[in-house]
Amino acid sequence: MLEEIVQLSLMIASCIFAILTVELKDLLHTVLSLAAMAISLGALFWILNAPYVAVFQILVYAGAVVVLFVAAVMLTRRK
Predict the structure, then answer these.
(1) Is the distance from CB of 38 to CB of 57 less than 8 angstroms?
(2) Could you state, in chain order, the average pLDDT of each consecutive group of 10 residues for the chain (79 residues)?
(3) I need a labelling partner for 45 at 20 to 30 A (CA). Which of 34, 56, 60, 67 fits?
(4) Burial of 74: CB neighbours in 10 Å, binned 0-12, 13-18, 19+
(5) Contact (Cβ atoms closer than 8 angstroms) between residue 27 and residue 73
(6) Which domains, from first to last, does the chain contain?
(7) Measured between alpha carbons, how far is 54 from 52 in angstroms, rounded to an integer?
(8) pTM
């Protein structure tokens, strides 16, 4: 019962963060929302007994891709 509640809450959080990633206007907030979505998706994979997928999800998407996006956002000029 508790595991199902945690899975459902992680699915809802992933959907909310995905919508925020698309809808937010500030680029830095968008990248942070993408990181939160990737972490919640990685946690969902971990709960579903796919630890390798979870680790790669968190390392690649929440780690490398988000750092690349943050560096790109920080190096662009704002008007």
Answers:
(1) yes
(2) 94 97 94 95 95 95 92 86
(3) 67
(4) exposed
(5) yes
(6) 2-75 (1.20.120.1200)
(7) 5
(8) 0.89
